[in-house]
What we know:
Chain C: InterPro entries: AAA+_ATPase (IPR003593), ABC_transp_ATP-bind (IPR050319), ABC_transporter-like_ATP-bd (IPR003439), ABC_transporter-like_CS (IPR017871), Oligopep_ABC_C (IPR013563), P-loop_NTPase (IPR027417). By secondary structure, chain B is mainly alpha-helical.
Amino acid sequence: MNKFLKTTAAVAVMAIASMGMATSQSMAEGKLSVSVALDPGSWDPIDTFLVAWGAVGSNIFDGLTERDTNAKLHPGLATSWEVLDEGVRIRFKLREGVKFHNGEPFNAEAVKFTFDRLLGEIGAKGPQRANYTSVESVEIIDDYTVDFHLTQPDPVLLTKLAGYGAMIVPPKYITEKGEDYFNTHPVGTGPFSFVSYEPKVDLELKANPDYWGDVAKVSELEYRFISELTTAVAELQAGRLDIVEDLPISMLSVVKDDAKLDVVSTAGPTVYGLRFNTRDGITANKDVRKAIVMAVDRSTIIKSLLAGEAEEIASFQSSLSFGYDPELKPLPYNPEEAKKLLKAAGVAPGTEIQIDIRAGKPTFNEVVQAVGAYLQTVGLKAVIKPYENSVFLNDIVPQGKTGALFQQSWGGWTLDYDNTAYLLYHTGQKWNPYGTDAKLDAMLEEQRPMTDVAKREELLKNIAAYVADEALEMPLYGLKAIYGVNKRLEGFVPAPDNRVKLNTVSIKQ
Amino acid sequence: MAGFIVKRMLQAIFATLIVTLLVSYAIRLTGDPALMLTQGAGSITEADLARIREALGVNRPFLVQYFEFLRGMVTFDFGKSFLGGTSVGLLIKGALPSTLVLAFWSMLVSIMISIPLGITAAVHRNKMVDQVIRVFSLVGLSFPNFWLAIMLVLVFSITWNLLPPSGMVGSLSYIMPSVTMGIILTATNVRLVRTTMLETLNAQYIMVARAKGLSERKVLYKHALRNCAIPLITYLGLQFGGLLGGIVVIERVFNWPGMGTLAFDAVGARDYPVLQATIMVLSLMIILVNLAVDIIYGLVDPRIRTE
Amino acid sequence: MKESSSDASSLIRVENLTVAFGAEKVVEDLSFSVRSGQTLAIVGESGSGKSVTSLSILRLADISGAHYLGGRILFESTKGEQDLLALSQQEMRAIRGKEIAMIFQEPMTSLNPVFTIGDQIAEVLQLHEGMARKEALAEGVKLLKMVRLADAESIIGRYPHQLSGGMRQRVMIAMALACRPKLLIADEPTTALDVTIQAQILAILRDLKDSLDMGIIFITHDMGVVAEMADDVVVMRKGHKVEEQPVEAIFTNPQHLYTQTLLSAVPKLGAMNGEDFPKRLPVSVYDEAGAHTEGELRVQNTANYEAAPLVRVEDLVVRFNVKKNFLGRPTHRVHAVEEISLDIYPGETLALVGESGSGKSTIGRTIQQLQESQAGNITFNGKRFADMGRGEKRALRQKIQYIFQDPYASLDPRKTVGFSIAEPIRTHGILHDQELIEKRVSELLDRVGLSASHGRRYPHEFSGGQRQRICIARALASDPELIIADEALSALDVSVQAQIINLFMDLQEERGLSYLFISHDMAVVEQISHRVAVLYLGQIVEFGSRRQVFENPTHSYTQNLLAAVPIADPHQRIMMAINEADIPSPIRAVGNEPARLSHREVAPGHLVANQ
């Protein structure tokens, strides 16, 4: 036993000594470590929709357009653009003097190659193409001018060009090295260039000194794949990670209590709510739906259950979304009014009301528990029924087999209300199992081909107001994008969509 | 012996087929990989999904897919991951050694702790020391393994900053995962060593060994332990399956780049090829270990060897 | 009585030794001494403290939790006289195996199964004599030759499981004698062995004692062995020495009542000469009240040979596969029973005698349907097993009851004995009413000499003899016609054994029971049985009435077997030429069938195999 203790002590001493060395090494020379929840397996932009890819890819690749952290579009590899021919042709002027990491020049050829690949055979195997089907072809006008020919006007296309699939890739490199090699050895025009990739472990990048924008302030950038957030937070606390994305609400206090760490958040694209079954039962009655919405004190839920890291919403979109109307206010919390409405609608006290949710989401589960408690106070008996994820997404919602309320969460990455509203409210859509509203359908169809941005925005606002008035859902909150960050970082700007650009970040010495 | 091994191998292949068939079928019930891959997409149409399903090959009947997987197995071509198209063989080649190394160290830690403790408990049966060890192992049994892991991380990584909280980065990173896993195994192993030791200590030949004038150490660690080895090896062999199961959890907590992490991510992404291959390799490992146990038996127990 | 402590030439002197486990004194105020070249037998029944005494000398008793409350154990070691009780365990280790060695009762479990014989012998020599391994192994071969193991060079490399019990006990002796100890303690060294092997081992010990000039402490419960081996005898009862005398005096002139009753309870081979029938004998019992005699003498003429046989066994063959090749085909078989035919008549006790591997238990197990047969017929009450339906076979399990050697193992430790006895009544649906069942259980307990209140207790609360009574009560519960008693008396002390024999005979008288009595103990068989079948390697070598077989043993095997039985009379030591051969194994390669014995009838009903 004594021997055992001695050995233990010896190991501990060794551990202290070598750890000291290891820590100092990882901090030196401006190396930034960031956790990513999942290894996308391929760094080819067209292979994935994973946010994990977005977080990393945005620092390797650039698109023609770029979206800042306020979701405003800016020139990227294109310096300017013009919408022509009633929206079916867009002409881009390209940035000159830009080089890929391998030295290959960026030009119209590269843009055409990128989109031919995306829309051709290679793209057909991946999921990204779905977003760009409105592009018919790309025409080279001169070395730094291209025309995009569209099959129909696509008002969201410019936003989509900032998305993953439209990242510009090096034609010569891919042609020479092959697709498989490109998957694991990505080359783009972004602020960081590829160094090494070990599947399921990490991806190492280094600063690109020739970057066309702000050259990175750190020399090295490492992404480590850590699927368990608890583990990632432990790494953050141990000082071996600088940034952890998507911090869960339950871990906020841990990070906040750590003197070395900060919680940084910003409005995110993900919104949560409960959708009504507008076809059957008591919720077929609009007044009942309004009563249910009014019965729930959403701002208290945000404050107490979500630590304030969420914003109240009136329609199913975040404040960043195109079509967001700051004037549209959510229905107020008013249990007395709710009771009156319920009584008027003839809903007997103690009526059961079923809420279907996806299992295994602890935070949302808590929120729904609270909703249930509020409903209790107006005399409704909430029964919460959690379903396994795929059952919920395949068999319950699209088949219209839900209870009176069911979970609705949406992470519209395009931040355009159309992308949410059309899929949620248009008759016959997968996520709209109950609604058949001709007026709403007409509005949704009308805005789609519009190229007049202001007019389309107006129409989207009208749609949101109409949906709110019909009380098709109980909008609960828009969750902020929450990051845990080491205080030694300077210049960290949280991104709503995980796509944090790290070239502006530096390390305090 | 040769015949026995051939027979066991055939059984093993059959068992592996059944396991992979079940797993392959079951995972296909839990969701559509095309849906998973397009989760972050804005607008996705049925046509897009169909296109992706075709690209992945999951639109074909289940048995066709399964037989293709089997054909791949024979040629050691496990196909490509749905996530990024990485070669599954490559992924497993990277992950399997990590898991096996962790399993090895966990076993070792557990053996190093449980044998002296178990023997001490047996020798001091029903005395204070024995009670303490038994309580310790009971506490160990009731630990949820991730909880223990988190506690260790809190103490050794966050409070004292001695050990890396996760990852496979240098020899120090092995300590916490193998100790966690080792302690969990130890809980049952201590009891097992104690019980088998008690039984062995009652044997006449132990008294004979003492009557020869051998030191207590020799009596316990030579005469008794060697006899305990037979039931212990059986149990450790059986435990290997459970060990791999436990490692899946431990790997996730410690972000260990092994088969568990691979399988976990694969389930999440409905990455059939990776999941099928990991399960197959893991079940093969379990079967191989048990086969090895049967052979080791013979080496340890002359009653079998000299048959 | 001799005053042992005054003996100056003694090798070891135990003086006023008191040993306790917890509060219970298991040895009290014990004194005796042993000289070089002397064999002292310590005799006693279970609980007499004889084994604790031997373990105390080696100081192994305290490892198992014993405390020495008083006394000294003075040993004349190479360092001069030492009080072993005053030595540390460390110091004792230099004496154990070197100056004092011990042989234990169970040769099957005394050797460590995972080490070779050579390793286990060499270990002692390496430890105490500082020999190198190679040298020690060479010495090991010499030692094995010394205990007359032929083929010592090959045995040295073998593992214990490859040796028979007799060979293992010889290895144990070789190992004990490796360092030429001054004192050898032999704790029931032959109890687990067959009689012919016992005779070999005893002869070896006797010879080696003389050639090595050792003192021997020989612990046994068997008065026959005492008569065979001892120079002097200490009789112990419940931790006390009750008597100490030279061996002749103990047998001719026992002083203590306990010694007298002990001697009277020992069945003596040849005591029944001239009797046609088995006899129920009165039993002397020694208890706190003193010695008294129980029961009467009665001739047991219960067998009804006029009636049809209750059981008829015809050409029975039972074989087990023991080794298989890799195709799963058997390569070797145990030929446990080879074409055996016998009858059991109502009211008859048929004894099966023979040594290990003779197939005697297999016959019993086959009749009880615990074992499948390969050929032959068994008929019960005129009906062949083969023609019986499932229900009839079940009913047969009620009519035939089995009593095992180890009563403790055959009782459920978590059930009251009353429950265990009632179990066959319930399973066979003999009685349904709970009250009637309880009444029946009380009657049964009363009948086997226990009281009704015992039914509420658990098996561990009873002594070995009481447990065997419980097993008998359970067997009687289903109202059987045949009881198979498989070594049912072997684990019992002689005084208890005599009482159980009488119980068996009383029950036979009352109920007309038939017994199939399986035993290796010739003296008991002589007393209890009507007819005897002597078995050797699965075949009958001699079959006849008790008187025919015991008074006129005709087959050489029967003769050897009888000659090897130690007689409880120091004047009748076995002087037979010791057969060095081991008992042959009934395992044979497939295709190598044993030759079938043919028999001749030397007298009416007396069959003897031709040789």
